[in-house]
Specification:
With about 375 residues, this protein is an alpha/beta fold. It is built from 16 helices and eight strands. An eight-stranded parallel sheet has the order 1-2-3-4-5-6-7-8. The structure holds zinc ion.
């Protein structure tokens, strides 16, 4: 697809609706750690291939350009250490990153949100991951009912300062969330507690328990008027992609108890972006975040974007990066996201589906305004 026109969105700010914390020290990393930011493969398993991805090549080209060094990982890392962390943080201002929504549930070793707020030049909002919370309570070996009430209390306490909740149930038992009896859920809970007490993993995979935690979260979201983000579509090798199709959320979307809870499917639900756009066009409470797919696909995200903008209301799509670790990555993703969105919008203008002004308005919504409204920033 070629476009003749140009839609100006490069001056518009972005709200990064889904990303993760910085490294404890964003300057201290080796080339191997650096490569791991650019792949969803298991750590250090793709070293011979990552350098041959468009994502990594684009990143080192643009980082090298910003730092005035060759597009070479060692030179980039050396120069970053020389110019310091303030220089890295300033890239967010240069790339008009107006706010970050940070999922603090991953990775376990990371800079605190308080420190991020101190060093970054934009507001940093917290998104609260429910499974991480539940796993931290498991080790207390509480009776089932008490476990649930502590979980609920912690969600309510978080609701006073977080802008949204997030679930990674897609990574565990899948998005086909359903109701379970108290007996089934408490049986699953006792199995988990026995495993943890025996020195086993706290990683929750038991569907009756996970679905029950999602139901409690939906109650809290309804009461406290907070959106709920779901991991959806591709991710690291831990995900069973078939279980992360957003169409599996239909029962939840149809349940009148949760009709007022705004649901955000993360990562464009890629490769299920058509399914996600369809859901966004039919269920008023369903939104689609574009993170991960935007930076990973780069210019190639134009085709999904054209389809999604063509089907879904432009109030339902939200920019995000899903990047982490280094401040500059949030800035690079913002630049790439705006460029690809401009391409998609120009194609729609070329083909008569949008006016130039209308395209810029759609761009402004997707890049920032939808997030400001949805998360009440
Ligand atoms: Zn993420």
């Amino acid at each position: 697809m070629t476009t003749e026109r140009h839609v100006a969105v490069s001056d518009l700010p972005v709200v990064d609706g889904h990303c993760h914390p910085l490294l404890p020290d964003p300057l201290e990393l080796g080339a191997g750690d650096f490569l791991n930011f650019f792949t969803e493969a298991r750590e250090d398993t793709m070293a011979g291939h990552v350098q041959h991805t468009r994502l990594l090549q684009r990143a080192i080209r643009d980082l090298g350009g910003r730092l005035g060094v060759q597009a070479d990982i060692d030179r980039i890392l050396e120069r970053r250490r020389q110019v310091g962390v303030e220089h890295a943080c300033r890239t967010l201002t240069e790339s008009r990153v107006a706010a970050l929504l940070v999922d603090t549930g991953y990775p376990p070793e990371a800079m605190s949100i308080e420190s991020m707020r101190r060093i970054l030049p934009c507001p940093v909002h917290e998104v609260f991951r429910i499974e991480t919370c539940a796993q931290s309570i498991l080790v207390r070996n509480l009776p089932y009912e008490e476990f649930l009430s502590v979980f609920r209390e912690q969600l309510h306490a978080a609701a006073t300062h977080v802008v949204a909740f997030k679930s990674i149930v897609a990574y565990r038992s899948g998005l086909a969330i359903r109701a379970w009896s108290a007996d089934q859920a408490s049986h699953a809970y006792r199995t988990v507690v026995a495993r943890v007490q025996g020195g086993g993993t706290t990683r929750l995979t038991e569907q009756p328990l996970l679905d029950t935690l999602v139901a409690i979260t939906l109650e809290v979201c309804r009461e406290r008027e907070r959106p709920l983000q779901f991991h959806s579509g591709f991710g690291d090798a831990d995900v069973d992609l078939l279980q992360s199709n957003p169409l599996l959320l239909r029962a939840l979307l149809e349940d009148p108890r949760w009709a007022s809870v705004r649901i955000v499917a993360l990562h464009m639900s890629y490769p299920y972006f058509r399914e996600a756009a369809y859901l966004a066009s039919v269920w008023p409470q369903f939104y689609v975040d574009l993170s991960l797919a935007l930076p990973f696909l780069g210019a190639g995200a134009m085709l999904p974007l054209v389809e999604m903008i063509s089907l879904a209301p432009s109030t339902k799509l939200l920019y995000g990066s899903d990047l982490r670790g280094l401040p500059e990555l949030f800035a690079l993703s913002a630049d790439w996201g705006r460029a690809t969105l401009a391409d998609a919008l120009a194609w729609l203008v070329d083909h008569g589906d949008l006016s130039g002004d209308g395209a810029r308005e759609v761009g402004r919504r997707i890049l920032a305004d939808n997030a400001i409204e949805l998360y009440r920033l």
